[in-house]
Amino acid sequence: MLLWVELALLLACIVVGARLGGMALGPVAGIGLVILVFAFGEPPGAPPGTVLGMILAVVTALALMQAAGGLDYVVELAEGLLRRNPKRITLVAPLVTYALIAASGTQHVIYALLPVIAEVARKAGVRPERPLSISVIAAQHGLIASPISAATVALAGVIAGSPVGVPQILLVTIPATLAGVLAGTLSVAFRGAELASDPAYQRALAEGKLTDASSTPRLEGANRRRAQLACGIFVAAILAVVLLGVFPELRPVFEHSVDGAVRADRIEMGRAIMIVMLAAGGALLVAVRADPEKALRGSIMKGGLTAVISILGVSWLGSSFFEGNQQAIVGGISAIVEAHPWVFAAGLFVLSILLFSQAATIVTLGPVAIALGLPASFLLAAYPAVNGNFFLPTYGTVLAAVSFDATGTTRIGGWLLNHSFMRPGLVATAVATAAATVLSRWLLPT
Fold this sequence. Notes:
- The chain is mostly helical and 446 residues long.
- The chain is 69% helix and 3% strand.
- It contains 19 helices and two strands.
- Helix 3 packs antiparallel against helix 14 (299-339).
- It is globular, with a radius of gyration of 22 Å.
């Protein structure tokens, strides 16, 4: 009974915070965290330090790029490409996101893309909710299609010793997830009112909260060259992140002491991203003379800090809830899978909602499938179902996308589950899982 009471508390905090809007999700979640820890005696969990650090580092570099005019230049270039068919960004954005995440092995590269997607869509007159919502989903699917992601490594470890290895995993997951992303894109391609007709957007314009997207002047002369250099520095940082993900041997190895023994470890990808992005911010300050005060006042920094505060509270609350009820949650799902192996995919989906991690979900339930004697091809067929992070609007990329959309079209609904990511998430995950099932039966040994 206590589990259900605590779950109701978690959902209530999310609903109230979403209705209050902006950064309210974080502080309202703090109320729930106080109740869970001090009243119910649950463990305090832990805030997602690496995620918050990556967001702050990326947002810092982006805000300085914006202060130097780089974001205006990116939007200007994108406008040129989209002028003939402005709705193209709804197709291009998720495919670019998918490719970058698959190459880098981490979803958090998307934090560098979300503000650009939002601004390009607004300037092109496209409802930002469309490309933003499916891009967040594409990031999740790109992660499980990546040969270097923690989720793929975890799956390969679970099925080690079977005829199915990383090449076979990619042979199934890449076409299956691409099919899911394309289906999800179609599901939102014409979603909602056009931006020019959206009442909330027009109200924000009338109140002076936003400027008309068509009113930004074209960069010229020295300002244009400065913006181009700023973009070059930021793109170089993105490429560096991708290379560090694709070729982990490029990441330095450091020695440290563990229980008196010297141990050598390679720097993890999250910290590598933070270091590269902070360095990019420093290069923007030194080489381009980006104005730090202007960066602090800009929309990128505002959206980034909103995302950080929201993620801090909600993710910490979710972590405390799961740690306090881990045995009941995992035990319940494991029992269902043992009785009905065909619901394994549903078990992956449900557990990923609670764990907020594809890799942790595979590590937790994968051994259950192997213990039940299910073949590796069966586990691979269900693999795309681990992308349930979007279901509750508490995951970092979801909250960041909402924060970066200044038009307010990307939102968390008043009833919690009627948020912008539900439709593309369900469609993409269902299609990808179905496609993986067909491909695994067709291509892989049983």
